[in-house]
UniProtKB/TrEMBL annotation:
Name of one Pfam family that matches: Amino_oxidase
Gene3D superfamilies linked to this entry: FAD/NAD(P)-binding domain (3.50.50.60)
UniProt protein name: Amine oxidase domain-containing protein
Source organism of this protein record: Candidatus Roizmanbacteria bacterium CG_4_10_14_0_8_um_filter_33_9
NCBIfam families: PRK07233.1 (NF005560)
Amine oxidase domain mapped to chain residues: 10-359
Length: 427
């Protein structure tokens, strides 16, 4: 069959790999000049490794991506144990181990023991539908206590989900604790090196990858899909079209609704429109000294600091691969109308600088990069659970394989690989 995959991220590429193995004729449409989606990377003149536009790592128990990398002959993931911490009222505390929790000074001993018991239970617990019937805030307040919610969790949820913080279902926190591991992995050369290897393997099996191609409409007539697309940045607005037997969309649902509206009935569209996303803003700073001393990941649990987290990439990966500069991500999830989505890089830096100086007053910025991504984080509320689409849609031979399908787990490359394989098996 002739199969179109819209989106050349890791899900789309994995799906293409398995579908070409089955003998299908596969075409991938990717808007960017490189494949990889949220895991795609970039280079500057003095780097010899790619850096992801949005921070990435894998966990030691991410078996789907590790098994897939072995299958395609990519044996270049390595693991280390970088330090993660949280910032509370200008004080930094490690949060990696049970011992860290016992030493945490902002909770009483009974509160720490209670929180530790709940975390241990969630770590070994299977998924229960009960977790979808309660919000995470209510679940954590009832099990750990109000003070543990306020100190440990409330600001984390507010920084990640904004005004939706107290509406997120408890299945999210179950999955977050269930999956987390101390050892973190990274591919030699960056995730773009891994992605380029998948691309090479997929093309060698006959796939056609159309980079810089934006799909603008999908129609279906007498069992055949027509994909309308145009070249990104082309002077001419002339559209091209191509016919397919099957379409797999890896696009965020709001985009699919726009380009495929003619395919769905009104009830299904109204259901999909209830899926809410936040956007991501990632400021990447190259500095002469690290902003964070030793810490890789710092969650900002201070409501007075308008930053979700700081990820000191070069406390995880050696700075020699990035011209000996120290690399840090300053990250936020925001609504589409947030000022950060409109602001130029210089304005974002100036707004953040006073807060970064609290952590290190002496660093100087050598270079900087700003990336903004629409539809980067689905909101896992009860409306999401009720309305999220399935992989198989009401339209015959149209499949959805996007971020929403990783629920209850947060987005990640491991689940992107799992989803790509899963949808390929369904076709």
């Amino acid at each position: 069959m002739k199969i179109a995959i819209i989106g050349g991220g890791i899900t789309g590429l994995t799906s293409a790999f398995y579908l070409t193995q089955k003998g299908h004729e596969v075409t991938i449409f990717e808007r960017e000049n490189l494949c990889g989606g949220l895991a795609s990377g970039f280079l500057t003149n003095n780097w010899n490794w790619h850096l992801e536009r949005t921070y990435h790592h894998i966990f030691s128990n991410d078996n789907d991506i590790l098994q897939f990398s072995k299958k395609i002959g990519f044996d270049e993931f390595f693991f280390t144990s970088p330090q993660t911490s949280s910032l509370y009222n200008s004080r930094t505390f490690p949060v990696d181990t049970p011992q860290d929790l016992l030493n945490f000074p902002l909770l009483s001993v009974p509160e720490k023991l209670r929180a530790g018991i709940v975390i241990a239970f969630l770590k070994i617990s299977p998924f229960f539908s009960y977790y979808e019937k309660k919000t995470a805030s209510k679940f954590l307040k009832e099990t750990m206590g109000d003070q543990a919610w306020i100190i440990l969790w409330e600001e984390l949820f507010r920084k990640k989900f904004g005004k939706y913080a107290e509406k997120i279902v408890a299945s999210f926190i179950w999955a977050r604790i269930k999956k987390r591991s101390k050892n973190l992995g990274y591919p030699t050369g960056g995730f773009q090196n891994f992605i380029n290897h998948i691309v090479k393997q997929t093309i060698s099996r006959g796939a056609d990858i159309k980079n810089n191609c934006s799909v603008t409409r999908i129609d279906k007539h007498r069992g055949t899909f027509t994909i309308y697309y145009s070249e990104v940045g082309a002077i001419s607005n002339r559209f091209q079209k191509k016919e397919f037997d099957v379409v797999i969309s890896t696009l965020p649902t709001p985009i699919l609704v726009k380009i495929g509206e003619s395919l769905f009935d009104r009830g299904y569209i109204e259901r999909l429109k209830k899926i809410i996303y936040l956007s991501a803003v990632n400021l990447i700073l190259e500095t002469n000294t690290p902003i964070l001393n030793k810490v890789y990941w710092l969650s900002i649990c201070d409501k007075n600091i308008p930053i979700m987290c700081i990820v000191q990439h070069t406390n995880f990966i050696d700075k020699k691969h990035y011209g000996n500069n120290h690399i840090s991500y300053v990250a936020n999830y925001v609504e589409e109308n947030n000022w950060r989505m409109r602001a130029p890089k210089e304005e974002v830096i100036s707004k953040y600088l006073q807060y970064l100086r609290i952590l290190n007053a002496k660093f100087s910025i050598q270079n900087s990069h700003l990336f903004k991504v629409l539809y980067a984080q689905p909101i896992f509320n009860k409306e999401f659970v009720k309305n999220k689409p399935e992989i198989i849609t009401p339209v015959h031979n149209l499949y959805i394989a996007n971020l929403e399908m990783t629920y209850p787990y947060d987005r990640g490359t491991n689940f992107a690989v799992r989803l790509g394989k899963q949808v390929a098996e369904m076709v």
